[in-house]
Amino acid sequence: MTSYQFRWDTIPQNFDFLMSGMQMTLLISAITLVLAMLGGLVIALLDMSKYRAARAAGLTIGEVIRNTPILVQLLWVYYVLPIFLGININAFTALVVGLSIYSSAFIAEVYRAGIQAVPVGHREAAQVLGLSPSQTFMRIVLPQAVRMTLPPLAANFVQLIKYSSLGAVISVGEITRRGMELSASTFRPLEIFTFIAVVYFFICWPLAMGIRYWEGRLARR
């Protein structure tokens, strides 16, 4: 290690190449968060359904997803799902689908906690005013639940930014994959992956601190 010659100039020379991977990372994270929020709502509604079969389906889906490794799920989507469906799935789509499915199971728990935290009196007041159960949910319960769940949803976005690095395994061109490709051609893994770690830190850390501050303000209110 003492004889190692650092070549930090490798980073500025390939900065645009690495940052193109960071743009892909943020794009994947944003798309996945939207899909996971929708999927999580579906699972949460199944979990709280008055129908036993729907509850069983929601419980089974959530438990299977939460208790199997995300990397295994991602590889299953990329390699196995095309065999079952008889279609081709490119690496980008497989990563988005795999991350969305995984995150939706955890977001479902966030939604469920938020929905159950809405006071029963609000539902009863809506029914007194003549709102149907579906109208009560859409107009009264869901808006309040969403406000309460925004900080943990934002925390899930931070997690998705980090999970997107798993796309390197299936050759998605996010920043970790770009680092692997650049390391293979320059033989400078120390400089490259140190830089990538710093980039992740300076994106995720401010978001995490902002979420903590946000949660503190909500708690004081």
Labels describing this entry:
single chain, 221 residues, mainly alpha, MetI-like fold, 0% strand
Polypeptide structure, described:
The protein has 221 residues and is mostly helical. It has one domain: MetI-like fold (Orthogonal Bundle). 81% of the residues lie in helices and 0% in strands. The chain contains 9 helices and no strands. It has helices at residues 10-13, 15-47, 52-66, 70-85, 91-117, 120-128, 133-163, 175-186, 189-220. Helix 2 (15-47) runs antiparallel to helix 3 (52-66), helix 2 (15-47) packs antiparallel against helix 7 (133-163) and helix 5 (91-117) packs across helix 7. The chain is globular. The termini are far apart. The relative contact order is 0.15.
Question: What is the topology?
Answer:
Blueprint: H1 10-13, H2 15-47, H3 52-66, H4 70-85, H5 91-117, H6 120-128, H7 133-163, H8 175-186, H9 189-220
